[in-house]
Amino acid sequence: MQDIISVSQLTRYIKKLFSYDSILSNVSVIGEISNFKLHSSGHMYFTLKDEYSVIRCVMFRSQNQMLKFKPKDGLKVIVRGYVSIYEQGGSYQLYPEYMEPAGMGNLYLAFEQLKQQLEKEGLFRPGLKKKIPYLPRSIAVVTSPTGAVIRDIINVLFRRFPNAVLKLYPVQVQGEDAARQIARALDFINCHNAADVIIIARGGGSLEELWPFNEEIVARSIYKSRIPVISAVGHETDFSIADFVADLRAPTPSAAAELVIPEKEVLVKTIMDLRLRLKKALANMIQCERLRLEQLMKSPSMRHPLDKVNQKKLDLENYKRSIAEAVRRKVEKEKSTLSVLCGKLDVLSPLTVLARGYSITMKEGNIIKSVKQVHNGDELDIVFTDGKIRCLAEGEAE
To answer: What is the value of pTM for the model shown?
Structure first.
């Protein structure tokens, strides 16, 4: 009778068969990612599918840390790894040790993904680009201390402007640690305000060789730099993430040296031309003012400066005579009016009545108008035109 075994024993036996199979121990599979999940542990869980089948996949953190792109649902990839049994679930799984996009390069996909991400965040916006100073006092160059790049920059820079101050910050420009070194150099220059403008540069090369300038850490260091950054990576046809984030892209390192500072001879010539133009403009202005002065000297005001004053004096005298005549006529008119009024007043004046022989009798300052106002023994004042007399009333009124 056949031996009876447990489920665990059977699963373990099948797993051993898988591990001894030469194909299953190193297999490459192409498929579309589905149900992708990045666990907090760093492990990636997903399924690969085609038109007819699916297979579960687990890519451990130690393997997926080397990926240059970010896996996502719907992405078609080629994975290489081994197939084994997950004993607890009793299912077989593919454990990828390497993954690359199907139909496009690993690095190219990573480049496009990071470019889209940073563009969405606004790191490429033209409005954020800082202006490159016209005549920087000092220029920082972040590049390899050896090789043709730094020599080309020095040659171009000092040929154009021998007084330029150049500060070299040596870094690796390819390799695993290159991106971190470039980012640290940018942060150091900004922290110490060590330059007015920064050039990050390297010569041409493959996408892999230029990759440090496509790293997110470099892009974000350029973005947060307070000092303007010029990117000069590779040849004219090469584009990197650094080019999109930088304040200015130079097609080559030599071109960056030409863009960062003007040519001294051109500056001197420009200054001399401006000086000559200023001299000519000043001479023209002096000539114009001289002609204007000559015209002013020939004017009547300059030949007879007191003529206008004398004219105003005559005008003043005429005004005075006009005012005096107007006052005289007014006085005469008012005198005539006063004479007429005085005549009318004389007709009504009590003094005129007195002059005709009449008198006014008064008692205690009041005019007597009736005999009933006078009693025996009252003192009366009789007013004449030339004086008054006091008398005493005798008897009663009849």
So the answer is: 0.53
Tokens linked to 15: 């797993």
Give the pLDDT confidence of 135-191 residue by residue, as tens digits: 899 999 999 998 889 999 999 998 998 888 999 999 999 888 999 999 999 999 999
pLDDT at 106: 66
| pLDDT given for residue 95 in this prediction | 92
In a domain, 108, yes or no: no
Q: Are residues 183 and 146 in the same domain?
A: yes
Burial status of residue 48 (CB atoms within 10 A of its CB: 0-12, 13-18, 19 or more): buried
Q: Rounded distance, CA 25 to CA 33, Å?
A: 21
**Contact of 48 with 59, CB cutoff 8 Å:** no
Give the tens place of pLDDT for each residue, 309-331. Answer: 888 888 888 899 899 899 999 98
Residue 42 DSSP label: S
The domain containing residue 291 runs over which residues?
266-298
Distances (CA, A) of 220 to 88, 184, 375: 44, 11, 131
Q: Does residue 131 sit within a domain? A: no
